[in-house]
Write a structure and sequence with these properties.
The complex is a heterodimer of chains A (177) and B (158). Helices cover 19% and strands 32% of the residues of chain A. Chain A is α+β, with helices and mostly antiparallel strands and 177 residues long. Chain B has 158 residues and is an alpha+beta fold. Helix content of chain B is 19%, strand content 34%. A five-stranded antiparallel sheet of chain B has the order 1-3-4-5-2, with helices on one face. The chains are: A alpha+beta (177), B alpha+beta (158).
């Protein structure tokens, strides 16, 4: 089936998805370190003038470096979508769950932060599929709720900085049954 | 740039936050994938967005999390730390929308330090974001850790 999301969605039956619950990935190291330039662009998007994101001298004295906005925790683990060696980008765990739906939308996110994430840090992430719901009907269509828990750590010291449980709705657009 | 923020004694359960108004034009929506590397086409391709039931492109989750974090942290200053944020996404924020965030302090207490951070006070807030039609777009509960200079103040502990 064609995947217009670009996320490399796997397709299959609900029973196939249930069989994956409990699957945990090996740690994946981020393609790039936490980047102050990207922090500033993100803050420009949300109009956030927090000094911890903009004032290097103050942030270094207070936090030990420029702070990453906590909302960017997952950004630092986003894969680069093209490589000169044409290597395929491995889909994130949520995309690997085989289900019928060809689209998705996020519905909730529960994030705990255990330590500051500072510019320059290289992060690593482990994911676990924690739940796939039975079929549900919403205004967008019929589908399943998929929950993935992530552990984000710094490298090389493996300090846990964030645990995040994200739930998305994987659905067939316009479906009614 | 952000100021120093409220002192511990000035914070009370029930205190209101906002309203904070933000106009979301197409550029702001396109900044979602540009700044978070989330290339889901619903955030940059209006034709795709319409094909899956939306009127146009919409901001991503990280954008909304960044907005509610900004709203929650602003009164407490840049030494406050987001310890936990739970967000429920109720309705997309589309290009052309104007969103308004309001919040309230729902808890204030003391806690033991994280390994990585010194002893802090805890403030919990509820933040809700509505669009121009007063439709609830998202709601969040955010727990902040605050710097408490000097001796530990008295008060309830978690």
């Amino acid at each position: 089936m064609n995947d217009p999301t670009g996320f490399g969605l796997a397709f299959g039956a609900y029973e196939d998805a249930c069989a994956m619950v409990g699957t945990r990935t090996d740690p994946v190291v981020a393609d790039f370190p936490v980047d102050w330039g990207m922090v500033k662009h993100f803050c420009a998007m949300v109009h956030d003038g927090n000094r911890a994101y903009w004032d290097e001298e103050w942030a270094t004295q207070t936090w030990g470096g420029i702070l990453s906005p906590p909302a960017m925790a997952m950004t630092w683990m986003m894969p680069i979508v093209w490589r000169p060696d044409a290597a395929e980008v491995a889909p994130r765990l949520a995309a690997q769950v085989p289900l019928p739906g060809a689209s998705l939308i996020n519905v909730s996110n529960d994030a705990e932060f255990w330590a500051p994430i500072l510019a320059g840090a290289r992060l690593t992430m482990t994911e676990e599929l924690v739940d796939v719901s039975p079929e549900k009907r919403t205004v967008l269509g019929v589908g399943h709720f998929v929950s993935v828990r992530s552990w984000i750590r710094t490298t090389p010291d493996q300090q846990l900085v964030a645990t995040i449980t994200n739930t998305l709705f994987r659905f067939s657009p316009g479906s009614t049954s | 740039m952000s100021g120093p923020g409220l002192g511990w004694e000035a914070i009370a359960v029930g205190d209101g936050i906002g309203p904070v108004v933000d106009e979301i034009d197409y550029r702001r929506v396109i900044m979602s994938p540009a700044t978070t590397l989330d290339y889901f086409p619903g955030h940059f391709d209006p034709e795709y967005a319409r094909s899956v039931g939306h009127p146009t492109i919409f901001v991503n989750t990280m954008h909304l999390m960044g907005f509610v974090d900004r709203v929650a942290l602003a009164p407490f200053g840049p030494t406050a730390f987001v310890r936990r944020r739970t967000i429920k996404l109720r309705h997309p924020v589309y290009a052309g929308d104007t969103i308004t965030a309001t919040g309230r302090v729902v808890d204030k207490c003391l806690t033991e330090a994280l390994d990585a951070l010194p002893l802090r006070g805890v403030v919990e807030l509820d933040v809700a974001v509505q669009n121009q039609h007063e439709v609830l777009c998202c709601e969040a509960r955010i727990r902040l850790l605050l710097t408490l200079p000097g001796p530990l103040p008295s008060g309830p502990r978690h």
